[in-house]
């Protein structure tokens, strides 16, 4: 991640800033990708998500304190997209398809984006030596194919795959308790903000 | 859908434990749609499609862009302050010039975010000491016998020392009054351990210590009571026009806002009696009583959660009229509602919204589901078609 000069000066504002930056880097791609499913326009999707983050910055003290910021972010993008569609008068046409299946679409899309985000987050935290190998594995390539692609031995591929699995397991167990609490909360909040 | 993204991602990463694996399988069987989704997410095509979209989204560039925007916004505020100082100095030199200058420099006012209310109240003790209960360190130091609850969400009169002081003679009953403004909520634990949650724009007057044969408090506005059981001393809530709600120990909600034509008592558990000069009505758990201004009293079974969830920070409503919904919210967000089309008041809404959202998010949710539009002008909300 690139270093940026600070916006504020005090200790508190530096802390808020780094949390804001982390939040942005963690969620920007998933949220844009989520918005794109409504808008079918990456440009528009990027605008909407950037705009949301500007608003979050303005009320950062509050928003950064939310228990379940993930559900909040997706929900906000959802409403911003609907508003945008309405303002551009595409609402009726698109909503015909969206709103009848609003809940299921929204939930599925949330699961889709969050799943991919969590996968990528886990992969990114792997040591560099096994990251690419593991990514190929995820995409369904065999050890043989990966070895050919990367011009390394099949043994190395297998060994690095093992290392990757071990690393992931280690991390998962450490995070398990935290994830369960957070995601139960997530589900609850996410459901309850459906209108 | 508790941990579904976690389950599926772990399944793919090969770290899903057998217990979660079983839960995931169960979820998949709940609905063909679920199965379809879970299977789709484990396929190469999904990962590749996502990777392709991610590749087209440049996070660093976007972050740089919004940082620039943030700086610009913050400089504008600074600039506005400088303009104000400059303008003020200019007054000394030439009032006329300043009038002209400010007009041409006048920045467009930005819509202010309407933030939710906070845990806040004012306490009036019988010595007429006024204590503002807000933030981390309310000035309770000078007031004896009161302690702050966790998270500064309320105050307690329960004796912390453990030794019960002798009951003071009746004529010495000391009263305190807790006043919660619009945009506030607050909790008080009375000396007998009874918990009272006060909603926005509400007031409770109560004895610092209960003496005699009853526990009597006075309420205007809305409060949720969790009354400590004491069969010897009934707990009585006196509301306007002399009506009383009396209980021995139970949980219930009383709503009696001056500007609303009825009094509403909702009973979550146990039994209460509602009594006026003209008669007495008993209420069972899960029932709600509505007393109209003209004296008519009706009872009906209700889902009590809809009437008590406010104390947990949740607006929950089912087929509620938009007018009623916005009236409730106007107290918490401290806003005024202007109706440009009275028929909109009758639109029915169902849903749940946590009270920590700013009002704009609430509006976005309402607009997304209804045909009504909102225009915000300071703290005045215009509702129109």
What would your notes on this structure say?
The complex is a heterodimer of chains A (195) and B (385). Chain A is mostly helical. Chain A is built from nine helices and no strands. Chain A starts with 10 loop residues before the first helix and ends with a helix. Mean pLDDT of chain A is 75; it is low at 1-5 and 175-195. With 385 residues, chain B is of the alpha+beta class. Chain B has helices spanning 4-13, 18-30, 32-41, 44-55, 59-93, 95-105, 305-308, 322-333, 359-369; strands at 118-119, 121-124, 130-133, 147-148, 154-156, 175-180, 184-189, 195-198, 202-207, 215-226, 235-238, 244-247, 251-256, 262-269, 271-275, 280-284, 287-292, 297-301, 314-321, 336-339, 348-354, 373-377, 380-384. In chain B, helix 1 (4-13) packs across helix 2, helix 2 packs across helix 3 and helix 5 (59-93) runs antiparallel to helix 6. The longest helix of chain B is centred in the N-terminal third of the chain and has 35 residues, at 59-93. Chain B is globular, with a radius of gyration of 28 Å. The chains are: A mainly alpha (195), B alpha+beta (385). At the A-B interface, helix 1, helix 2, helix 4, helix 6 and helix 9 of A face helix 1, helix 3, helix 4, helix 5 and strand 21 of B.
